[in-house]
Amino acid sequence: MSDHDRREHEAHAGWLERVAPYLDDELAPDERRTMAHHLSACELCRRELSRQQAVSQRLGRLGSASHTASPSAAHPVAQPAGHAASAEAVERRLRHRLFSPAQRRVAPRPLWGWMGWGLAAVQACVLAVVLGWPSWQARQGVPMVRDAVADYRQLVAGELPGHTTRDTAALARTLALPLEVIEGPGVEFLGAWPTALQGQPAAALAYRVEARTVVQYVVSGPLFFNRASVRDAVARQGRYVAHLGDQAVVGWPGDNAGSLLVGELPTDRLERLRL
Amino acid sequence: MRFLGHFSSRERRYRRLVQPHVTHLVHIAMQRTGEAALAEDLVQESCIMAWEKLEGLRSAEASRAWLVRILLRQVADHRRTRARRQALLPITDIEETHWQAIAGEAPGPFEEAVAAQSDSRVAALLRRLPDDFAIVVELHDLMGYRYREIAETLELPLGTVTSRLARGRRLLAALLVDEQEEASERDAVGDEGERHHE
After folding, report:
1. B15 in contact with A at a CB cutoff of 8 Å?
2. Which residues in chain B show pLDDT less than 70?
3. How far, in Å, CA of B34 to CA of B36, rounded?
4. Could you give the residue range(s) of every CATH 1.10.1740.10 domain in chain B?
5. What is the average per-residue pLDDT within A232-245?
6. What is the pLDDT of residue B168?
7. Which CATH number is associated with domain B9-81?
8. Best interface-test mutation with B: which of A10, A17, A47 has the largest number of B CBs within 10 A?
9. Closest-CA residue in chain A for B115?
10. Phi, psi angles (nearest 5°) of residue A134
11. What distances in angstroms separate CA A235 from CA A69, A185, A221, A230, A240, one per listed residue?
């Protein structure tokens, strides 16, 4: 290319860039008019247009040689009829690979997805423990109360122990527990004896109420207040009330000790006894 | 359990967003590779990749462009890893020759030379163009995309699409003329040889 040609080409660089969009009808109307006006006077741009048009038309013929209209109205792009068989073969293999239940490909879950599920599982476990532990404990009952009721059931199934005493003051000294006998109308004190709840010394005081045996278990303060459910009940209502089968239990705190009254009577009747 | 006529949500999305474009993908792949079996494999892998990434596709309008991008990445990966690399073209020299030609030629011979080329030769020469130019030319001149659609599909600025289309056509024009000249020379040499034999 001579210097003159090069200068002419560089001067036309902007126009030459607009030749293809002009040919393809991609210019705005006013740009198109300006370009048409330029083309009428510029031999170089006309030749470029002629070449672009020749190549474009040749490719268009190549594209339409075996083309049919696209089935998609939204995308009126011509599709070669000869390619339909290939497309069908691909779709057949894809149906087999993707939609067949036995060979269905499941998208691989990204690592963060697995981590997310892992974290959620850990959180669920923690939540279950935090929320479920108190209710599980509540269902299991207070160990001290369970021991008292079990002892009571053995007692009513048989006879009172042979070593009962009516000298509660001596028993209180022996066990270092404050013992106060319940007195009232219809309440007959039968006797007292040393026993053990949760492996700790306790005193059992038996009464006859309405032809039924009621036993008062007196335990140390630390044992009585060992469980949160007992502490909460005493703090809120001044007493602890529970039912285990046929037996009702009413507990209340004493002087560095606590009493559990166990019997087969309604709890309100048991509560009235201690007043 | 799968009932008659019941498809999973992913399957429904696939049938709506991917399946209608499989033929179009095959068309592009055939044009890019020139081999039916290879084109089918690349389209199949593209559709499987689309199946796995279907959650990433938000709108039906964007599905065709999204699928074409996946396919073109597959084609590029295939070319990079398994197929021979394209022979490098001296683009600057070819363009220089083009400018010289249009500065001096009279209209007529070029257009005749281009029209005389067979379809298979034009398709083969198109595959010799660098991918960046060839895909723009193919989408526009063979498949009827508008500039804006090409820009959206390939995620390119409109100016880049305009420039690549014009340059791609110029490169192809130069290759077509070269091929025609070489074929003429071969014919001339053949005639000469035949006369010598006589």
Report:
1. no
2. 1-7, 82-89, 102-108, 179-198
3. 7
4. 9-81
5. 87
6. 92
7. 1.10.1740.10
8. A47
9. A58
10. -60, -45
11. 86, 29, 14, 8, 9
Residues of chain B with CATH 1.10.10.10: 91-197
Contacts by residues B15-20 (CB-CB < 8 Å, ≥ 24 positions apart): B16/B60, B17/B50, B17/B54, B17/B57, B17/B60, B17/B63, B18/B47, B18/B50, B18/B51, B18/B54, B18/B63, B18/B67, B19/A91, B20/A71, B20/A72
Distance, in angstroms, between B194 CA and closest chain A CA? 33
Taking an 8 Å cut-off on Cβ atoms, the answer to whether B98 and A44 are in contact is no
The answer, as to whether pTM is greater than 0.90, is: no
What does the pLDDT read at residue A43? 87
Task: Note the pLDDT tens digit of each residue in B72-117.
Answer: 999 888 887 765 555 666 777 777 777 777 666 665 677 777 777 8
| pLDDT for B149 | 93
Please give the residue of chain B at the shortest CA–CA distance from A85: B23
CATH number of B91-197: 1.10.10.10
Instruction: Render pLDDT for A171-203 as a digit per residue (tens, 0 to 9).
Output: 999 888 888 888 888 889 989 999 998 889 999
And the tokens for B159? 């100016």
State the pLDDT confidence band at A211, using cuts at 50, 70 and 90: confident
Closest Cβ–Cβ partner in B100, B141, B147 for A56: B141
CB-based contacts of A259, cutoff 8 Å, min separation 6: A216, A217, A218, A219, A251, A252, A274
B159 vs A232: CA distance, rounded Å: 78
- Summarised one tens digit per residue, pLDDT across range A4-24 is 666 666 667 888 889 999 999
CA angle A19, A22, A23 (to 5 degrees): 85
**Any A CB within 8 A of B76 CB:** no
> What's the burial of A13, exposed, middle or buried (CB within 10 Å: 0-12/13-18/19+)?
exposed
Domains of chain A: 3-59 (no CATH), 140-273 (3.30.200.100)
